[in-house]
Specification:
flat; mainly alpha; single chain
Length: 202
């Protein structure tokens, strides 16, 4: 529930984010930053533990990575020659996704994963939908803030994005009752640490 919303928000506010951190001189890096963000949501899917569980997969993974590395070198050479830094990061992203797709497919077959298990990704789809909806609303809002400085834009867009995402997550029932209880306890603990106490209900 972190990677998808973070990537979506940074996609929207990338120019302001880069400008705030590195000054407007580095705005030309925005396309590179956005392309690199494509990989962020896929960090939610970890395959290392699954690969280590099946000894027969280790050598296969090594072969796949060696082959893709050689192809990546060729793609980098052509990508840089044709499109510069954008071509380089595009090649890295494409081959990273290709590697994860191949290894994920092989590891899934070894673990007995089938199409029937696709329902397990329902919550992931809900998170992506909530992040997308919040990004659309935030993008529309940002269109009215073009004359603003980067930090106020980041602050306001972050607040709006967080509110819309939380509302969408609640409407889609992404969080379980136990997760809501954990969140309430965390908020109560934070408020108590800050010296803020809830008024007792009458």
């Amino acid at each position: 529930a972190v990677f998808f919303p973070t990537a979506a928000l940074l996609m929207v506010v990338a120019p302001e984010f880069i400008s705030f951190l590195f000054t407007p001189r580095y705005l030309s890096a925005v396309p590179i930053f956005r392309i690199n963000l494509i990989l962020l949501p896929f960090n939610a899917f970890t395959l290392d533990a699954l690969i280590r569980s099946y000894a027969q997969l280790r050598f296969l993974v090594v072969r796949v990575r060696v082959i893709l590395f050689v192809l990546l070198c060729v793609a980098l050479w052509r990508g840089i020659a044709l499109y510069g830094a954008v071509g380089a990061i595009s090649a890295v992203v494409v081959f990273s996704l290709l590697e994860r797709g191949i290894i994920g497919t092989v590891a899934g077959r070894a673990a007995g994963v089938s199409r029937k298990d696709a329902s397990l990704l329902t919550d992931v789809a809900k998170i992506a939908a909530a992040a997308g909806a919040a990004a659309v609303v935030t993008g529309l809002l940002k269109g009215w803030l073009r004359a603003w400085k980067p930090f106020p834009v980041l602050a306001l867009c972050g607040a709006v994005y967080g509110s819309v995402y939380a509302g969408a997550a609640f409407a889609l029932r992404i969080a379980t009752p136990d997760e809501w209880d954990t969140a309430r306890r965390s908020i109560a603990s934070a408020l108590a640490a800050a010296g803020i106490r809830r008024r007792p209900s009458i």
